[in-house]
Amino acid sequence: MVTLKQLAKELNVSISTVSKALNNSEEIGEETVKRVKELAELYNYKPNRMALSLKQNKTKTIGVIIPNILNHFLAKVLFGIEREATKLGYNIITCISNESLETEKASLQLLASGSVDGFILCVSEETQIKNEIDHFKKTISQGLPIVMFDRVAHDVMCDKVIVDDFDATYNATKNLLLENRKNIVFISNIDDLSVGKLRERGYNKAILENGGQDPLVLRIFKKDDHQKKIKSFFRKNKTIDGVVSADSSSAIIAINSAINLGKKVPKHMSVIGFASKSDSNHTLPRLTTIRQHAKVIGANATQLLVNRLQNMHLNEDVRTIIVKTSLVKNKSTLL
Q: Where is the HTH lacI-type domain (predicted)?
């Protein structure tokens, strides 16, 4: 590999001059910058990142830990993180916790040993169920900042990016009440997660404020046959005319089950669910969705972390950014 020393020797200038020229320093004249860059390109010179990180005590790398790479929302957040990190001059290393507390701990420990400057992460399901947070606090105490997104540990003092989960389901339920729906059910397969609980509370508030019915909740667990459980629920509760779903799969199954039982959507039943544009394309009629703006969440999380890394000496207060969801109306609702 060609080194700065070799470039400097051939150009008959100092090593610092070559370094400054490659970094577009105003201290170096345009002609010298041009000569240095042309020679560097000729020899396909690449800076030694490991040497730079040792010198600067920075890796310019962000560790990202997500619970499930197959989750469409999380994959889009990851896309947003990577795109924004590249813009800001950072690389990312991604680990998948597979919803496991131990895997999450191991990923933090592995990357905290000099591989990254800080972390962006979404808390695993097992971590939330067991409410374990010591591994996050330990990482932060080592001088490695963490930004949490979507599922967060509220007792950990770190920057966070969340969506307005409570308001989103509150407003979605209100939308169905405006359609004069009388029996609205809330369906969720994420009851163990903080976001699932917030979404259920938003639904409950809208129903209780309206006073026309009691809250009606169908919780689906991993061991359940999702399709069978929703279809059976609809059979037993024939008056259901509205569905608010905390997740995309339950909303899609609700539409298919209703149609299979002879109901017309949205004439007899309206359905709204947390889902992406691509999810809505998988239903007929197309699903009215609560859009979370995953790429925006990823970009905001990256900006928060980079700002924290660049201003560690200021000891700024932690921040929480709330990204507003959008209700994207399609053919599965009347209004």
A: 2-56
Residue 12 buriedness (CB in 10 A; 0-12 / 13-18 / 19+): exposed
SS (H, E, C) the chain: CCCHHHHHHHHCCCHHHHHHHHCCCCCCCHHHHHHHHHHHHHCCCCCCHHHHHHHHCCCCEEEEEECCCCCHHHHHHHHHHHHHHHHCCCEEEEEECCCCHHHHHHHHHHHHCCCCCEEEECCCHHHHHHCCCHHHHHHHHCCCCEEEECCCCCCCCCEEEEECHHHHHHHHHHHHHHCCCCCEEEEECCCCCHHHHHHHHHHHHHHHHHCCCCCCEEECCCCCCHHHHHHHHHHHCCCCCEEEECCHHHHHHHHHHHHHCCCCCCCCCEEEEECCHHHHCCCCCCCEEEECCHHHHHHHHHHHHHHHHHCHHHCCCCCEEEECCEEECCCCCCC
Single pTM value for the model: 0.84
Classify residue 50 as exposed, middle or buried by CB count within 10 Å of its CB (0-12, 13-18, 19+).
exposed
CB 172 within 8 A of CB 128: no
Task: List pLDDT tens digits, range 186-230.
Answer: 999 999 999 999 999 999 999 999 999 999 999 999 899 999 999
Residue whose structure tokens are 């990204």: 323
Please write the tens of the pLDDT for every residue from 111-170: 998 889 999 999 999 999 999 999 999 999 999 999 999 999 999 999 999 999 999 999
Cα(255)–Cα(234) distance, integer angstroms: 11
Q: What are the distances in angstroms from CA 68 to CA 97, 100, 192, 194?
A: 7, 10, 16, 16
Could you give the CA distance from residue 210 to residue 224 in angstroms, rounded to a whole number?
A: 32
